[in-house]
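pinning this so it doesn't scroll away 📌
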Amino acid sequence: MGVRVRIASGGVTDVGRVRANNEDCYKIVEPLNLFVLSDGMGGEAHGEIASAMAVETVVKHCLDAETNPAAQVIGAIQPNWSARTKHLTTAVHLANRAIFKSAEKNPDHHGMGATLTAVWIDGPKLSIAHVGDSRAYLLRSGSLLQLTRDHSLVAEQVRRGILTTAEAEESNMQNVLLRALGAQSVIEVDAEEHTLFPRDVLLPCSDGLTRTVTEPEIAGTLQAETDPGRAAEKLIALANERGGPDNITVVTMRLEKDSKGWFSWLRRGTRKILGSNGSAGGN
């Protein structure tokens, strides 16, 4: 049966110190152990529309899939994936389709899009589906590992050896994405599975955090602050101390030993919305 674990979680979103609107959106669906985060693009309120549409579409499909095992599966699916990974990937494809069609039908929404990082925990199994440059990190035994790959121009240039990591951090092309929801009618979705262990900490976040706060600082904060909600607040505050040039969203999950069952929801972390577009709880 393995070691039994419970999940404590917290999420915070903040508009930052420069932007007028918060185009980030996140949702924690406790009954499903589902965590979804999106960063909208498009200016004015259009980014807010895109990110909210992305999050709600993913949540709706995952909820439907739980009650209907025969729910549709679309996109490039690996046969060895779990049912939840397949449905999570499908949900991201459906979110892309919804945003693309909305922009196609409404000229005012032309150019809107969104990143999306979704995490679904099923016992010791972690499913991740991802498009864009919002990230998911895993802190294990003091080491911070980026689980997602940025779909950005500078990240691709680093992977190809064209830029160093330091040069990429200073580049004025950091905002250029190679992949985002709504940009095309069909999108490639990165998806993968991992095995989780007690004391693991997961952190999905938008780039408003990672462009101002270093990975060692993220790891140090998560190690120093064990309450998920307060850890998210401290990371948001640190990003704002650095000028808060973008919206910032942080969701944290801490896996703790528990004698009652695999990943049962027994303790809630603090959840606050410092800007807009965040929610936690049920469906």
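📌 and the second one:
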Amino acid sequence: MIVAESITKSFGDREAVSSLSFSTLKGEIFGIVGPDGAGKSTLLRMTAAILRPDSGRLTIDGMDVSGNPYSIKERLAYMPQRFGLYEDLTVEENIYFFGRLFGKSKRQIRAGLDRLYGFSRLGPFRDRLAGKLSGGMKQKLGLACCLVHAPDLILLDEPTNGVDPVSRREFWKILYDLLSEGVTILVSTAYLDEAERCNRIALMYRGRFITSGYPSDIKESIGKRFMEMKTTNPIKSEMELRKKPEYKGIILTGDTLRLFVSDLEDSKRKIKKILSGAGIKSISMTEKTPTLEDCFVHIVAEER
């Protein structure tokens, strides 16, 4: 559905997207994961034909985005981080407004209302002002407005940022329902647990994809053992271990330290010696299965 070939976008001296190439399949959820400033929003805006790449080529279903921006926009829906709902209009008035922007007649919009209300569960609130909705309901209304013209491709820029956990789960259920209809979804997120729900993902850092693939493949690509340990002083333990180059990717979670190591038993001996020299005792050291977040922190640490 999407093919990007060495696309680059700069703002002044800052390169937001750097010679980036990737492709997505039709009917999949492709997730872009990365910290703030990684270039996720810029990439989505270029895909939505809002920004033009400085160089490179971007196509959607074989159509050049730069050469056919208006034709492309009829095929897709773009939902930015702050979707432009009109808060002084009701839920239904917003849906009609965005439907008319895409050239749909009132009759066509009316025919699709049941479907939009069905997945969003906004039917009972159709007469409520958008400004009176909760954060999660606003996001679902934003998605409903994006889908009123039945697009083939949906671009979502951190759609659940700041939304409560229950609404996040409901939002993703909607995405899976859309996926079953053959819609392609490109979503950016800072939540690693959401990335696990995508068919394929790319880890974006400083304008580039530093790795991509199926979540399970990314975990296996590390090629190292993952260790979890507890000590008598976890904060000081992290500080001491970070002085060693091989332990730069250590993660402190609560009172637990987590890190990738090349050799489990050898690392246990070395770490115990380092901690002992700092007056710290190790309580436990066990091998664990890493999460996607653990992998991301490790990959970024190596990239740096």
